[in-house]
Amino acid sequence: MDKFSDLPVFPIRISTPFAVGDVFSYLIIDEKIVLVDTGHYSDEAYETVKQHLRDHDLQVKDLDEIWLTHGHPDHYGQAVKLADRSGATVMGHPKDRTNFAANDNSELFEAFFDRHNIPETLTQQMLEQLEWLQQYQQPLEPQWISDGDHLSSGSIGAEVCLTPGHAPGHLSFVTDQGIIFSGDLLLGHISTNALINFDADTGQRNKSLLQYRESLQWIRKQEGVVMPGHGEQIDNITEVADHHLAEHKKRYQKIQQLLEQQSMSLIKLSQRMFPDAIKSGAIFLVLSEVLGYLDWGIKEGTIGLDEQKMEYERI
Ligand SMILES: [Zn+2]
Ligand SMILES: [Zn+2]
């Protein structure tokens, strides 16, 4: 038994139709009844939350607050449904406003894919994937919270920490008791992707891997346990964060080596790095990942982009 098992925090495991597998929401039963993330919008996910509440003699209408780590369907999709039936206040960060609005930014993505000469079939595949996700979320405008704000369920206080990268307005909630609800920032079993995304205010593409690595640098220094959005509780935070940081570095070096041999476009480099993942339909994850390393190289001055040919080169 660890010291955290005494706290009134209960994981709710929700199965999803997504490749990532089950998602975890966390129920805090305190002076307030709080749910950290909600699961996606579906009858099954709703039943799962309802059943867990019932196990504690609670009902959906008893929910007081919903704290959202970020605006991906598996984390916020059924927030509206739960809030409508409970009057719960839903909170999230404004940099994820586009996600929470279920606006998939398809125009910005199309322009981006076009500029990088991504083949039409792959572009269509990605746009269809975005479209498919729509059924699992209901748009909302949360009450906006900011980095440094304090939330409380009563006996459990939590600091709101902006930890962008995986999503532009990704939040972690760091409780006074040492539990960190960190959404998709740190997962034990898989590395999460710093997805291609755009700033909600400017429409500019974020350098998401660079943001993500800064967020990993932040969490590696935190003490306590991580209750993640997917997978089991993480007790060895620093070790897991360092593992992901080191994996990034290896892939970054591999990309530099490939570019030493010849200059390549984003898609060509992606096909060289992850051909199997592309064949299995994960093209968006692959492009996100490769672009992240290219952003990194450009920032460090080791990689350049020939804007005429849209090819990356080693400099
Ligand atoms: Zn996510
Ligand atoms: Zn997730």
UniProtKB/TrEMBL annotation:
**Pfam family membership, one:** Lactamase_B
InterPro entries associated with the record: Metallo-B-lactamas, RibonucZ/Hydroxyglut_hydro, Sec-metab_biosynth-thioest
Every Metallo-beta-lactamase domain range: 22-230
User: Gene3D superfamilies of this UniProt entry?
Assistant: Ribonuclease Z/Hydroxyacylglutathione hydrolase-like
Name the domain of life this protein comes from.
Answer: Bacteria
Which PANTHER family would you find in this protein's record? Answer: ENDORIBONUCLEASE LACTB2
Instruction: Supply the name of the protein.
Output: Glyoxylase, beta-lactamase superfamily II
- Give the species: Fodinibius salinus
Question: Which taxonomic lineage is given here?
Answer: Bacteria, Pseudomonadati, Balneolota, Balneolia, Balneolales
